Amino acid sequence: MENENSTKKKISKYFLVYTAFVILSFARAISTYVFIVPNAFAPGGIGGIASIVYNVVKLYNPSLAESVFNPAVIVLVLNIPLLIIAFFKLNKRFAFNTALCVLLYSGFMGLFSLVNFPVFQGALDTGIVIVAALVGGILAGVSLGFLLILNSSLGGTDIIARLGYKKNPNINVYWQIFAFDSIIVLFSGIIGIINAKGKDVNEVFLAISLPIFYSFIT
Predict the structure, then answer these.
(1) CB < 8 Å & 24+ apart, contacts of 51-60
(2) Cα(first)–Cα(last) distance of the chain, in Å?
(3) How many other CB atoms sit within 10 Å of the CB of residue 2?
């Protein structure tokens, strides 16, 4: 009887944990697809890199951006080598959980793209974008925070930070994630640089700095 109760408790525990993975991955996919990518934010991680690449490619070839350089594809492809390293270098449970969440995260974004899920998009100098930065940041931060608590993540800089921590336990994982993400944030201004031709100095400054500021807010 004790063994039976113990088994039921384990099944119930795993059911709750993996249900949480689905919900949190869905929340992160909403954050990226609905709020972050349409407004060309890059708040860090592979999701931020995917946003930069997608929005740059979209300026030149929209159809290519929606297919080969779709954020769902980029997130999955860039995470594969990191996940392989994680399986060999980090805790196997963490690596498995992260791989599952990455698949869910990428899969949800791919599904949103297929059904033309509505996005929350506005001009960079409007209140709409401030709301997008705040809501996108809240969803991204909460989902990542709970995933880290549950011994998982969404790959990318989270894995890199864990690898750094394993090599040097004195390193704070969360500050390391923030440092890596901050570097990606600075690259969010690249779209402003591309669009700078023919604009005056103030317009160029705004075009470059606004995505960076909004990405930091996120």
Answers:
(1) 51/188, 52/184, 52/187, 52/188, 52/190, 52/191, 55/191, 56/190, 56/191, 56/194, 59/191, 59/194, 59/195
(2) 50
(3) 6
How many separate helices (H) and strands (E) can be counted in the chain?
10, 0
Whether residue 154 contacts residue 147, with contact meaning beta carbons closer than 8 Å, is answered with: yes
Cα–Cα distances in angstroms (integers) from residue 154 to residues 54, 69, 123, 157, in the given order: 19, 19, 29, 9
Angle separating helix axes 201-217 and 173-186, nearest 10 degrees: 160
Cα 199 to Cα 68, 138, 165, 192, 204: the distances in Å are: 31, 34, 45, 11, 6
The answer to whether 102 and 17 have CB atoms below 8 angstroms apart is: no
pLDDT along the chain (218 residues), means of 10: 70 90 96 94 90 93 94 95 91 92 96 95 83 93 91 86 82 80 88 78 85 90
Q: Is 15 buried (19+), middle (13-18) or exposed (0-12) by CB count in 10 A?
A: exposed
* Contact (Cβ atoms closer than 8 angstroms) between residue 108 and residue 29: yes
Tokens standing for residue 169: 């336990």
Torsion, CA 164, CA 169, CA 175, CA 179, rounded to 10 = -30
Q: 97-130: string of b/e by CB count within 10 Å (b at 16+)? A: bbbebbebbbbbbbebbeeeeeebeeebeeeebe
pTM: 0.90
